[in-house]
Write a structure and sequence with these properties.
This protein has helices spanning 32-46, 77-83, 88-103, 113-123, 128-139, 178-191, 195-209, 213-227, 233-240; strands at residues 5-10, 13-18, 21-26, 55-61, 64-70, 75-76, 146-148, 157-159, 165-167, 174-176. By secondary structure, it is of the alpha+beta class. The protein has a five-stranded antiparallel sheet, with helices on one face. The longest helix is centred in the middle third of the chain and has 16 residues, at 88-103.
Length: 249
Amino acid sequence: MKFDTVLAKRQNKVIYKDGDLVAKVFDESFPKSDILNEALNQSRVEETGLKIPKIEEVTKVDGKWAIVSTYIEGKTMAELMAENPDKIDELLEKFVDIQIEILSQKAPLLNKLQDKMKRKIDETTLDATTRYELQTKLNGMPKHTKVCHGDFNPSNVIISADGTPHILDWSHATQGNGAADAARTYLLFKLGKQDDIAEKYIKLFCNKTDTARQYVNEWLPIVAASQSVKGKPEEREFLLSWVNICDYQ
């Protein structure tokens, strides 16, 4: 494929489009194991039947690893929300319905969310006492086997011309507790300074899934700690402010 059309540039990677294909090209600093794990995650989620880009190839481009997938034509939900502020409630409802569909799936070969979070907590700069309390809290949370996206936000959902949603970016996918995935989405809205949308989102999620808000809140310090490991300095400061063992109200 040709690498003339750049769709996006992100830290450590560039995304190119050529016809019906998209290539995510990683720079040399990106661990090969993470790239191969992302491709493996995506292929395992493909098998659930969810509407996602299909892996076509894992290859090298000028010595750099690349994942080639099918191109999905459409607009992201983030773009639709920005263009249609009067339809935020309608779009958020659709957004939550898509997340519930993801969580209804099983992919037994995905890594376990609890294992990943345990590892991430150990990688934080938090003191030993706080890490111990977070690990104890994590160990006490119910262990589920739902497909969890791990970075579910409106930028990772494309709506095609016929209204069909497609979910992108499965690099953080695991199997685990859906409330943890909801807690992460809530924090992502908060990180984006979209506090009103964050509150609307979490209320919708709890109502539609019959989940107690307090239950999702139990996950917030755990998810914030694990999310802080790779975040930007300003994001780490915000996330670590949520690492409080006392219950959120």
